[in-house]
Amino acid sequence: MGTIGKRRLWGIVLALFVCAADQYIKWVVRVQLDLRNRPEGLYELLPFFDLRWTRNFGISLGMFEATSMEMRWGLVAATALIALVVLVWLLRETAKGDIFGLSLILGGAMGNIYDRYRWGYVIDYADLHFGEFRPFLIFNIADAAITIGVLIILARSFLVPEKKAKPADQDTPDQLPAES
Q1: Neighbouring C-beta atoms of residue 41, cutoff 10 Å
Q2: At 163, is the pLDDT very low, low, confident or very high (cuts 50, 70, 90)?
Q3: Distance (Å, whole) CA 177 – CA 150
Q4: Which position among 50, 98, 127, 143 bears the catalytic label?
Q5: Which residues, including other chains, have CB under 8 Å from residue 134's CB and lie 6 or more apart?
Q6: Cβ partners under 8 Å of residue 54, min gap 6
Q7: CB 137 within 8 A of CB 62
Q8: What pLDDT is recorded for position 140?
Q9: Are 52 and 125 in contact (CB under 8 A)?
Q10: How many CA atoms are closer than 13 Å to the CA of 92, on its beta-carbon side?
Q11: Strands of 49-56's sheet, edge to edge?
């Protein structure tokens, strides 16, 4: 297996790790801490960060909320299709940074798809706040991984110049005929 193949394999391993870590933390929140049955679904950790039980029936930012069983399965299908596109992209990608970003996106997507498939909603719990100000909605590891992955892909596409391939018919200096 070549270097590119190893990078892609590590990308798949990273995606599986992100998904597993996301599901483990959601299990801790759901079972060990039993946030669903705590007053206000709240577990205070730091003055600016709490664990708070939240069920997200929509997708990003709670948009496109699934209010019926058909909509739920529609969201599962749509997000699974997007995850499949990301997987194919990852398996075709050669750049290490892009593989890393795509792996985070894929792992996060798998974690949230699993929730939606199993529970009908995504479990969110991470509540970053400064007093009443919340710079983000309540989120989870999968959401954070997706966001970081997208930012990596965007930053690389805007900041890293692409290498231009030489046309096949263009002569290079060592291929030029010798002058007489």
Answers
A1: 20
A2: low
A3: 48
A4: 143
A5: 127, 128
A6: 41, 123, 124, 125, 138
A7: yes
A8: 95
A9: yes
A10: 6
A11: 42-46, 49-56, 122-128
Q: Could you give phi then psi for residue 99, rounded to 5 degrees?
A: -60, -40
- What is the pTM assigned to this prediction? 0.82
Quick check: helix, strand or coil at residue 26? helix
What mean pLDDT is predicted for residues 111-139?
90
> Of the ranges 73-82, 156-165, 169-178, which one carries the lowest mean pLDDT score?
169-178
**pLDDT confidence bin for 28, thresholds 50/70/90:** very high
Residue type, 2: G
Q: Which of the residues 22, 98, 124, 127 is marked catalytic? A: 124
Rounded Cα distance between 9 and 120, Å, is 31
- Is 143 part of the annotated catalytic residue set? yes
127 an active-site residue? Answer: no
**pLDDT for residue 160 is more than 90:** no
CA distances from 53 to 31, 37, 41, 50, 132 (A): 12, 9, 5, 10, 17
Residue 97 gets the label, from left (phi > 0), alpha (psi -120 to 50) or beta, of alpha
Mean pLDDT of 119-128: 92
pLDDT at residue 174 tops 90: no
